[in-house]
## 1
Amino acid sequence: MIYTVTLNPSIDYIVHVPSVQLGELNRMDNDIKLPGGKGINVSRVLNHINQTSTALGFLGGFTGNFIADWLEKEGVQTQFVSIKGDTRINVKLKSDTETELNAQGPVISQDEADQLINQIDLIKDDDIIILSGNKPPSLSEDFYQNLIAKVVLKQADFVIDTTGSELLNALVHKPLLVKPNHHELAELFDTTFHSLEDIIVHGKKLIDLGAQYALVSMAGDGALFFTNEQVYQATVPKGIVKNSVGAGDSMIAGFVGALVDTKDPLKAFQKSVATGSATAFSDDLATKTEIEALLTNVTITELTL
């Protein structure tokens, strides 16, 4: 089983406004409400490509019910911990520029946190656990580390998609995959990139520090894929970018889903890039048809170092 963990889900309220005037009444052209949260996005895309997963995390209130109902209608399996607080609402304001207003999230009690930890105790050694996104401030600083410790004890594989110290601290436990973008990678090592070679040097550090595979996305410049022995670069298909939210989560879903199916990391890398691109070109998350239409447009090249 593939499990996704979303510690701080949201309703993503996406609003389109022709021009935002601060301090004035602004009328929307249109709006849409979608279930949000990085792990939830991964589970939704896995479902789109016919790969079963179970979404874990915390949901509460009328906002949590909205997410649970949406996932049930799509056929995504869930085992969320029910909490007293309301799941947050994040506003994605799309105008001449894109602005995001993200809430901090609900308070998670110790009992609620322990329920999620106990769920991880039930995983098996052939499961894959995908840990995605930031945690609400009420959870302990070492909450991700506690989850990872449980996964390692069960000898299961895990993917972690977060930033900063939480990502660095996870590397020693040999995650199956890490996926920072090039900006996050630079921040991780407190540096600035001036060339592709700079990105490659620091991407290889992710492997040296313990990651089994590392995927570094570079927006329109494609993506890099690192293994213990090689570095590969992928082109990205051409298209009109409509949606930056969820593209990175889609890459993880594409990679893990293809790796489970094919056991071939390069095919997984190609599927990952096609899936991320398909989401970027869509109003919501990528569908199987959209992904397959782009797959042959993703070219993988091994780089000579």
## 2
Amino acid sequence: MKQPWIHKAKTDLTFIIGPSFFVLAIIFLLQDYITEIENKYSFYTWLFLIVFIDVAHVYATLFKTYFVADEFKKNKKRLLLLPTICFAIGIILFSFGSLVFWSFLAYVAVFHFIRQQYGFMRLYARNEEKTRLSVCIDNLAIYASTGYPMLYWFFSSERKFNWFVENEFFRFENTFLLEILFWIYISILLIYVSYSIYKSINNKFFNIPKNAIILGTALSWFFGIVYFNDDLIFTLLNVVSHGIPYMALVYFREIENKSTKSLGVFSYLKSYNAIFIYILILMGIAFTEEFLWEILVWNGNFSLTTFDFSGWQFLIVPLLSVPQFTHYLLDGFIWKSNKSQTKIS
């Protein structure tokens, strides 16, 4: 059996599987300088991590939906209705207070981040012969890798980082519960490792990308949330490990593999410099959105107007959140694979 790469071994290892390991290596090499980097270069870390990766990856969805004529025509009602629903939900939630709004969005974001790792794991397991036991163990491994660190966040002492804003998650410090969760977490990972070794010997095949994505997920979530208690480290592992693989997946499957005709107005993305044009488009849209957030809501890195927008936050915040909220929900539909690929024996 061939290794089930999504694109090619080199590109998968660099852009989809590799970011978690690469960032972890950088963190361990530079951990003595993390605080200095965070204090001296906060604007640049914000610009690179939040704007050019986190916000940019949201708009990569456009190249699988709104920018694809056939896809838009096929799912026109959903693609038009969903942003409207997101805006309406946002206004309703914000009417109960900004914390209610951000808390809801944070929980949806966590679910989305967890499901993306599950999705990559299933893609890399697509050619395996599946049994109920194998699927159950794979699922337990990926959900334990992401779920335990989040539960640790909820039940541990206060962390020095947030997903969006302070006090967004329900928290209840309980060391006894954490100890139980830790041993459940370790048990699940040990079961997965044992079963993977047994299956690899039995089938005479070791699925490199599937096991690497599970290992990378476990390491990045554990070190980003549990082991380290640092805002920049959390952001690095959270954003880079999520955003870059997603942008790479969209490019490899929805641009490089599509015909020039199907890309329509973006047919020039089939040129030699396609990847750079793709990245520039995402960065441009992302910077525009974040610029609006800064001048209309946060007033942190840019302050170009003296007009007071505080009375309009109930509309501005939900409206600016529509692309992000829509991305979270759309992602649950647009990557569904053929049922024949996931048939369980």
